[in-house]
Amino acid sequence: MSMEAVERGTYPTADDLEIGQSFGRSLTVTETHVVLAAGIFGDFAPLHTDELFAKDTRYGKRLVHGTLVTGMMAGALTQHMGPNAMGFLEEHMRYRAPTYIGDTLETLWTISDLVPKEKLGGSIVYLDGVCRRDDGTVVVEGEARMIVRA
Amino acid sequence: MGDPVRYSELRIGDKFGRRMTVTDTHLTLAATLFADSVPIHVDEKFAKNTPFGTRIAPGPVASGLLAVSIGMHFAGTALAYLEQVDQYRKPLKAGDTVSTVWEVVEKIDKPRFNGGIVVLKGVCTNQEGEVVLESTGKSIVTDVLPGEESPDIAETNEERAET
Question: B35 and A72 in contact by Cβ < 8 A?
Answer without folding.
Answer: yes
